[in-house]
């Protein structure tokens, strides 16, 4: 049996890629979460500390890469930083591939439109001689969102940073009503309905691939024109 690794943050896009891989019958034996130290060109940043709970609910072993593994802090160029940020992920995958009884076939990724991210992940896969499963890539964002809702994903917005998104969006459920509001904001401000431009970030608290829902207690932190939720407690129901 060949092994797949799901690049996983707990956000909706990586969770959807994982879900679709499982639906396709891919043998996902590990989730791989990268915890950036701060802002990142390559990775989803908020609430990645909850990935362990999500992995427990999904029932797949989690491999975590810590901020200490990054060497991109002094890099000014975005492309160079993206390359540097990828290095600890690639090292982790090489370590997984070297394990006993592991035949690494590929990785899943939740990229939708970011050529910056996808080109680097594809190049990494080429170097490792493995495949890339990217079921969201270049798909219609509204259709993707509706597919997530139809499948039973419960998604919460955990960070916002765009015109039109105020404090009321923090902790809000990302559902059909929220999508309607986002489409109106796209007309007015250009907000991407999946938050692909960094307008908002999400966390999946329940879905068909999860055995137990994640219950969150949090405070909303607003910083003038952007904000995030600060998790006070998280547990599996």
TrEMBL record:
UniProt xrefs under Pfam families: Diphthami_syn_2 (PF01902)
InterPro entries, A to Z: Diphthami_syn_dom, DPH6/MJ0570, MJ0570_ATP-bd, Rossmann-like_a/b/a_fold
UniProt lineage: Archaea, Methanobacteriati, Methanobacteriota, Stenosarchaea group, Halobacteria
GO molecular function: diphthine-ammonia ligase activity
One GO biological process term: protein histidyl modification to diphthamide
Name of the protein in its database record: ATP binding protein
Record domain Diphthamide synthase: where: 5-235
NCBIfam families: arCOG00187, MJ0570_dom
